[in-house]
Description:
This protein is an alpha+beta fold. It folds into three domains: about 5-90, no CATH class; about 120-190, no CATH class; about 200-320, Dna Topoisomerase Vi A Subunit, Chain: A, domain 2. The protein has helices spanning about 65-70, 75-90, 95-105, 130-140, 215-220, 235-240, 255-265, 280-300, 305-320; strands spanning about 10-15, 20, 35-40, 40-45, 55, 120-125, 150, 160-170, 170-180, 190, 210-215, 225, 245-250, 270, 300-305. The strands form four sheets. It has a five-stranded antiparallel sheet, with helices on one face. A five-stranded mixed sheet has the order 12-11-13-14-15, sandwiched between helices. Strands 8-9-10 form a three-stranded antiparallel sheet, with no helix packed on it. Strand 8 and strand 9 form a beta hairpin. It is globular and about 65 Å long. The N and C termini lie far apart (about 60 Å).
Amino acid sequence: xxxxxxxxxxxxxxxxxxxxxxxxxxxxxxxxxxxxxxxxxxxxxxxxxxxxxxxxxxxxxxxxxxxxxxxxxxxxxxxxxxxxxxxxxxxxxxxxxxxxxxxxxxxxxxxxxxxxxxxxxxxxxxxxxxxxxxxxxxxxxxxxxxxxxxxxxxxxxxxxxxxxxxxxxxxxxxxxxxxxxxxxxxxxxxxxxxxxxxxxxxxxxxxxxxxxxxxxxxxxxxxxxxxxxxxxxxxxxxxxxxxxxxxxxxxxxxxxxxxxxxxxxxxxxxxxxxxxxxxxxxxxxxxxxxxxxxxxxxxxxxxxxxxxxxxxxxxxxxxxxx
Length: 322
C-alpha cells in the first residue's frame, strides 16, 4: 500500500492519540493544522483550518477527495492509480460485508451529510494543552480520540473554554458537540443531524452487544452508543437495530432515565440498571469502578424480561424519591 507518510512535509509532529500534525497543503497553513491518522487499513485526513477532509480504506476505490489530497502532496498520478488497483485486489469478505451494511443503511434511509461548519480554528487536544487534556482524562475519554478545542476565539461565539467532540458516521464528520468548561449555561453547544447516534463508528464487528446510553461521555468511556436524549427516536432505533446485535439500554439513574426505560421496553430491548453507589450515570461509574468493573456490573444487571425490567424501574423510582 502507498506509504502516504513519506509524502508529508518534513516538519511534523505526532500526538499521543496517533494523529500526525503538519502544515495543511490545502490552504495557507503555517500552524500545523493538518492532521492525518494512519491505520493498517488506510488513513484519514482533516484540516482544522479550512475543514477539508479526505480518507482512504483498503478495499474501496480511491475517492475524488482522496485523489485531490494525494495530488496536493505531489503523489504521482501513476502511484495513485496503482493504489486504486491494489485496493480493489485486496477487497475481502470484510469489505463485502461493509458494502452490505452501507446498502442496508441506505435502504433504511440512514444517511448523514458531511459538514463543513466545524468550530473555526479547532485544534486537536494533546498534553501540550494540559487543561483540556486533563479534563478529557478525568472523563475517561480514550487518549486516541481526536477531541478538539478552539484556541483562537472570535471574541463573540467561542470565548468560553471548551472541548469539542466530533460526531462521525462511516468515517465522515457529520456534526459535533462542544462541552463548556465553566459553570455557566448552556453546558453544551451542538450541531447534530436528526436520527444520529453517537458511537456507531466505534463498534466492532465481533461484538455481541450494543450498549446504549444517554450521554456522549458515557458512550466514550465504555465504547457504547449515545442517543443524547432521554428517549430514542424511530430513526435512531432503525440505525441501532441495523447493527445486528442485542441492544442493552443503560439509563441515567435519574428522572430522565425512567423515560428511557419505557422507550427501551417499547422497542423490545434489554435494560440494565446496576446497583451503583452514588453514581448518576455510566461515566460516574467508570470513574468509581473502572471501565471493566462498570461493564461487568452492566452485564450482571441486564434484564430481558419486561416484568423484571418494570420491577427494577420501580426500585429506581423509589430510590430517587428518597
